[in-house]
Amino acid sequence: MANVEVRALRQQPGFACEECRKRKARCDRGRPKCSFCTATGSTCVIVDKRQQRGPKKGQVNQMRLQIGLLHSSSTVM
Ligand SMILES: [Zn+2]
Ligand SMILES: [Zn+2]
User: If you placed Cys at 45, which of 18, 19, 57, 71 could pair as Cys (CB 3.0 to 4.6 Å)?
Assistant: First the structure.
């Protein structure tokens, strides 16, 4: 079997907090504050512009289960 799953890395290179973005500084995304915000004493806010929509992992598993059941029941004949 050649079932290879390629997982994309979650870290995005250009993903900086608001303060670093405004000042065009390099954000190390430290927690709770990145080093730049710690140095400047500003609030570190990282805005995720991607909208999180769609079913959650658990729901997807449920859907897969149902699809699998449907599939198996339709191929029984
Ligand atoms: Zn930053
Ligand atoms: Zn920051």
Answer: 18
Low-confidence ranges of the chain (pLDDT < 70): 1-14, 50-52, 54-55, 74-77
Distance 13 CA to ligand 2 centre (A): 15
Q: Spell 57-73 as b/e; 16+ CB within 10 A means b.
A: eeeeeeeeeeeeeeeee
Residue 65 is predicted with a pLDDT of 81
Domains observed in the chain: 12-50 (4.10.240.10)
Torsion sign across C-alpha atoms 64, 66, 72, 74: negative
Ligand 1 centroid – CA 5 distance (Å): 32
Composition of the chain by helix, strand, coil, percent to 5: 40, 0, 60
